[in-house]
Amino acid sequence: xxxxxxxxxxxxxxxxxxxxxxxxxxxxxxxxxxxxxxxxxxxxxxxxxxxxxxxxxxxxxxxxxxxxxxxxxxxxxxxxxxxxxxxxxxxxxxxxxxxxxxxxxxxxxxxxxxxxxxxxxxxxxxxxxxxxxxxxxxxxxxxxxxxxxxxxxxxxxxxxxxxxxxxxxxxxxxxxxxxxxxxxxxxxxxxxxxxxxxxxxxxxxxxxxxxxxxxxxxxxxxxxxxxxxxxxxxxxxxxxxxxxxxxxxxxxxxxxxxxxxxxxxxxxxxxxxxxxxxxxxxxxxxxxxxxxxxxxxxxxxxxxxxxxxxxxxxxxxxxxxxxxxxxxxxxxxxxxxxxxxxxxxxxxxxxxxxxxxxxxxxxxxxxxxxxxxxxxxxxxxxxxxxxxxxxxxxxxxxxxxxxxxxxxxxxxxxxxxxxxxxxxxxxxxxxxxxxxxxxxxxxxxxxxxxxxxxxxxxxxxxxxxxxxxxxxxxxxxxxxxxxxxxxxxxxxxxxxxxxxxxxxxxxxxxxxxxxxxxxxxxxxxxxxxxxxxxxxxxxxxxxxxxxxxxxxxxxxxxxxxxxxxxxxxxxxxxxxxxxxxxxxxxxxxxxxxxxxxxxxxxxxxxxxxxxxxxxxxxxxxxxxxxxxxxxxxxxxxxxxxxxxxxxxx
Length: 649
Prior knowledge:
Elements: H1 2-30, H2 40-61, H3 66-82, H4 84-101, H5 104-120, H6 127-143, H7 149-152, H8 161-168, H9 182-228, H10 231-245, E1 256-257, E2 260-261, H11 270-286, H12 296-321, H13 331-346, H14 358-366, H15 370-395, H16 416-430, H17 443-452, H18 456-485, H19 492-512, H20 520-540, H21 549-561, H22 563-581, E3 598-603, E4 606-611, E5 624-625, H23 628-632, E6 634-636, E7 645-647
Parallel strand pairs: 4-5
Antiparallel strand pairs: 1-2, 3-4, 6-7
């Protein structure tokens, strides 16, 4: 556990430094200022992105080992020494962190971090970690990539960028054990972010209520003193009112400025931002027992949860600061669109989050800022390019296991028949059919079987999403009333884009591979966003009468109640996990990767390993496959591993 906390500190500092450099570089490239407005979480996330992308480029040519790590670390330190703008960002974030550390919110966050560190240090590995995550990480460490390695085991063809990030921070060459703390790091990072976001919104609401009530009392006294001719006391009371409104709140940032709220709560997406933060917390504690695993699902959906919440924050900032659109005011959503591309490279199932780019693209073109947008497009392509190159080198396909785009003729290409079967297996397992002969079944055929295969708490979560669809329709009706009253937020374009993209992601998830784990963030966030949007509409229409408020309130309450079974189940899971693992001896070092028994087969004098039992792969020997039959249908291209694998003739 101590090693986990130590590694998190190192990862956090490294990512913070790399994020400061990358944001300074982005500002230099785009010419858009605003570096000191970024939160610590945003800078660290930018660092995660930058480190991963750099390591991906490196992996195309060489292994992601000590040399890669030291080179990137030296480059970041050199940039900080020579580049004042990068140092400014880093120092600004450190000052903010210091200011927020010694507070009740900071204390609560530290307790959360300790709980997640406890879970990251011990437990049971995710099934897929035993099948391929651990071995894929080892191959990245030892080779960067191997041409055609997807032939050895098809799972390697999924090529998650997240596993490159995991490999970068195993530190297996300098420590006595290989660390796998990155999922826990992201869980802790975004838990702290969500807690501070919720605490900040609560403080804003209290401040606004206090300010409004205090101003009302002051007006009464002011009227009385005015009648008595006491002008001095009237001026004093006016000054007090101004001081109340000019107070600062969360995260060391001003919530009000120049006597006007910068991020007020009523009618400005406040409850939707709460919904995004709550989604992150529920997701983290749903998977608390598995954060030890470097699982691609967990890493991808944690960053997706942050992306959703940050997108809503960006909408609120634009709502609070402007009545119009410019490229500077679109910078937040442009940056998050780049992050959406990165999320797609982490796992192909999240690819449709890329559609978020539509909003800043359309709005930027409307104001004639195509040149500035083009720079962001270049950045996005640079982020996504190594993922595509690695795809082609690993499997021969641009997007494995999608065979619709057959662009390359290379000797290491995975045969289309294998890719199709792999894709069908993912689909039928998600639909609880477990037979690729049923891959072409219509929705009406597989839906009853799938429904019966869900646990009761999973069914309740599905019910919540059905209710959310109806509630979104009511929100559309209420939104028309809000527009007429001109009382609502102005960031509705961003919100509408986000909800539409989430609906598309959920629809794709449902029609392709509706395994709840694959789309959990979408299933959690949509009902909460629908209920939160309804609350924001109620605030905006506080003085308006509408029939639709009644059914909307009913649906919102029902949707939230549907979460009770889910929360109850996983809260009990977490409590049992803590109780059962208190005596585990992992308070100094982290529990190591599992080491299942492996057997070896020689090819051209080279040992290639395969699972001896239970189709579980190992981190400790390489190259290795969990499936002997995949090894049997694969051969070496040459006389070395580096030359790659190809399908056997």
